[in-house]
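Open question from group meeting: does this chain pack into something compact, or does most of it stay loose? Before anyone orders reagents, we agreed to write out a predicted structure and look at it together. Recording both the input and the output here so the notebook holds the full record.
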Amino acid sequence: MIFIDGRFKATNRGMIEAQLREITVAGRNFLFVPGPTNVPDRVLRAMSVASEDHRSPDFPALTRACLDGLKPVFKTITGYPILFPSSGTGCWEAALTNCLEPGATVLIARFGQFSHLWADMCTRLGFDVALLDTPWGEGAPVDQYLAALESDRQHRIKAVLVCQNETATGVTSDVAALRRAMNSVNHPALLMVDAVSALASIDFRMDEWGVDVCISGSQKGLMLPAGLGVTCISPKALEAAKRTSSRRCYFDYADMVAANASGYFPYTPSLQMMYALREALSMLAEEGLENVFRRHTHLAGGARAAVMQGWKLKLCAAAPKWYSDTVTAVMVPAGIDAAAVIARAYTRYNLSLGAGLSKVAGKLFRIGHLGDLNEIMLLGAIAGAEMAMLDTGISIEPGSGVAAAQSYWRKH
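Structure tokens returned:
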């Protein structure tokens, strides 16, 4: 409870209003939500270009640089990268409406807010959803997927859907194991993977894992502003799209693939974002994709050390096999509202942390550590989170998280 203008208030709204008067405007906002992520200066400069004719003879060079540069990121030789002016949600819809007949059965596990939203979209679009409800904090239940596929003797399931990295809970799933399960029963369903908060940060192997549709977005590991839906489809998915009767227009794969073959788009593309993407892909290639993955693992290890060894708090992820290298979801003690921690971090310390969503709202805050960042940047987020937690009544040792992260990184 706090005083505002001489009146006693006991609401989170009152606390937030009071804290808004304290907001620090000097310096740069520390953006540590799990997307959008920091946009590198090189990328910002690259997208600062005048508009140009997207039908000009020169334009195909930019298109090919983007699409060809994405193939190594998806780890595909045979796949077709596609850029939609949308978010990853648009790519969800594109996957469903292109590859499946109306009313088709899809198999999906729900273990966080984003897997929940994808399942909800399936229902709203009229598909028959076979839902595997899983505790939030665990990853995709491969054994339950296998059981459902084994019992599907008539092959009514036409697509298997999974989130590789569930951003809401800081959990990563084993896509390769899911593909092995599908292969073990020779199930012909398409495999569709949401890699929005994994692509270009956590290893993803489209061809090796037999992924038919990979869904991502520009504002995470690709280090761009939001606004591009980034997807890749297999030849099998493209053939399925040619046969289905589902209606689509804006998100039609065939239109995109046909226009892209000559370096153009079926409608006006996001020119500045394409220049940004070309630069971001150059940065990823210069660092080396495997080095990018190792950097994210290294940073995540320090973040987890801060939480568990320094602050003595728990992660939402239930076991080490689920730990995400792109986002750490920190459970706050009972009786503490995580929203107050997030509000304090933002208004007093100019630090943006991710909120708990749906089932975990108020129970956790999230530290995003993906894209363009290093140890010193992440230490700033850890320090800011410490101060916000102390200010909101969480009993931790000042400096403990910072020290634990420093120790981890210096030893590794």
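Observations to bring back to the group:
The first strand starts at residue 2 and ends at 4.
The domain at 43-286 is CATH 3.40.640.10 (Aspartate Aminotransferase; domain 2).
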